[in-house]
Amino acid sequence: MKIKPLSDRVVLKPLEAEETTKSGIILATDSKEKPQQAIVVAVGPGGFRDGEEVDMDVEVGDKVVYSRYAGTDVKLEDEEYIIVKQDDILAILAE
Fold first, then answer.
1. Does residue 83 sit in helix, strand or coil?
2. CA 22 to CA 89: how far, in whole Å?
3. pTM (2 decimals)?
4. What averages of pLDDT result for each successive group of 10 residues across the chain (95 residues)?
5. Distances (CA, A) of 89 to 9, 39, 71
């Protein structure tokens, strides 16, 4: 099943939370924070907001940072995704 976002929405696949700290301490499941980094898997066509056209600045495959409490969690075929508005994406991470 494919998911196709509408308007200025973006589908993200969250990256897994780190299981160990940089110093090697293994984190308990409860200690892990919800990751705020994700890979863009689908991008809507854009649209209009308040009479102005919204251009999409992200592309499929971009690694992004998004707002902590943004979006709607969706589970499709045992995969977890988050659907957010483009405004909830804070930055594109460059390699």
1. strand
2. 26
3. 0.79
4. 90 79 62 75 90 90 94 93 95 90
5. 10, 11, 10
